[in-house]
Amino acid sequence: MTTPPAPQSESANKITQNSPAKVAIASLVGTAVEFYDFYIYGLAAALVLSDLFFPTKDRAIAIMSSFLTFGIAFVARPIGAGLFGHFGDKVGRKTTLIASLLIMGISTTLIGVLPTYQQAGIIAPVCLCILRFCQGLGLGGEWGGAALLATENAPKGKRALFAMFPQIGPPIGFITASLIFIILSKNLNNEQMMSWGWRIPFLLSIVLVGLGMYVRMSIIESNAFRTMVARQSAVKIPLTDTVRKHYNQLFLGSLAATSCFTLFFLTTVFSLQYATTKHEWQSTALFNKIEYLSILMGAIVFMAVGSPISAWLSDRIGRRPVFLIGGIATIIIGFFFGDLINSSSGITAAIFLSSALFIMGILWTPLAAFLPEIFPTNVRYTGAAISFSFGGILGGSLTPFAAAWIVKTYGLQGTVYIGWFLIAACILSMIAVVLLPETHKQEIEN
Known about the structure:
- 79% of the residues lie in helices and 0% in strands.
- It is built from 22 helices and no strands.
- The chain has helices at residues 10-13, 20-47, 49-53, 59-90, 93-111, 117-120, 123-152, 159-187, 190-197, 199-203, 205-216, 223-231, 238-245, 247-275, 289-317, 319-335, 337-341, 346-364, 367-373, 377-397, 399-410, 414-435.
């Protein structure tokens, strides 16, 4: 088993540190690659996997089955968070970040070589579920480590600004994933896409993982971690210590992260499926797949635009006010959700998706600073990663499935109920944020 680095004096620890540019690039590239892998699956689940792995005469059942496999990764994420958090808090952030990237990349690449249901029967969806679970394990360890890499190496008073970089990685990953699907859809006919074209985005993952590995191999451990090692203040089992001593932060941190996941997956994965599917109350689908995916890809840019604004505000007025501003805006989106998602106007769809994802950037960015700040260094990786992962379970794991079920059960009126679902998740997160302490002026505890 790998042993922790040898203790050093605190003065020696401060001599060598990562440059700000290296921290920004390493945290951004890693999350961009890992979320590319994650979103590739989400897009495929909405567009092709239902037909390839869950063929049935009932189209709605096939779609819900595909979305259930999408949710499997969210169940795996807290397991990955606990596993990688343990070694991240005991052995170091760098080694753990590299391992999580490898697991995610290998799992995604293997999905690209899976046989379909027609080729292998029930074995195909079983293998798909296993690899999706492995994707979740890798992502469960990725985000916490990337957030710590940014916040523990950030200059004084700029933790949210540096925490912005791992949060910009996901929109970059989503744009890359969407762009690849658009290029394939424009250059391949439906038969080619369903036969072999869908595999290409998954196989490309191995190239991106190589890029991420190259960047992350050059980083060193943060001063906070090296100081903890020098003081010999590491705990024996970080997960046990986190649950026993920091359960309040763990619970409230998970609830705080819930609403941004709900908002994101309703406005990306679910809306993509809903808008490009013909329903019984329609004569045709609202949009074709390429058209809607193009609108969605443009809208995701606004999530990246919202991130630096949110980071700047968060470092100046605090984490809680920014969360609450984003929460109020999310509630407004929820009230109009049914009308907006049922519009066949490209302009309306663009405004809806761009606004929702801009708000997502406002909610999303402070999390990378806020969740690590509420835990001490010796359990920071474990605590932040598990809180984020449980937030993903509560807000994202079954959200596309639940939304599809609501539509199947209640028809057109169901889209209004989905808006209420979003509002409920948002109120829950806002209550949790109010109950947590404000941390933007506090020094990170070593």
